[in-house]
Amino acid sequence: MALSLHLPVLSPAHSMPLAHWQIAAAYVVFAIGYLVFALGKLPGMKIDRPGMAIIGAVLMVAFGVVSAAEALRSIDFATLVLLFSMMLVVGCLRLAGFFEWITEHLVARLSPHNLLPATIFITGALSAFFVNDIICLVMVPFALTAARRMGLKPLPYLLAVATAANIGSVATITGNPQNMLIGSFSGLSYRDFLLHLGPVALIGMLLDWLVIRLLCGAPHGAAAAAPAEPPHMHLRELRKPAIVIALVLAGFLSGVPPAMMAALGAALMLITRTREPRLVYDEVDWGLLVFFVGLFLIVGGAERAGLTDDLATIAARLNLQNAGILTGLTALLSNIVSNVPAVMLLKSLVPSFHNPRTGWMVLAMASTLAGNLTITGSVANLIVVERARDEAHIGFWDYSRVGIPVTLLTLAVGWAWLGLVQ
Question: Which of 25, 56, 155, 273 is most open to solvent, judged by the fewest CB atoms within 10 Å of its CB?
Answer without folding.
Answer: 273
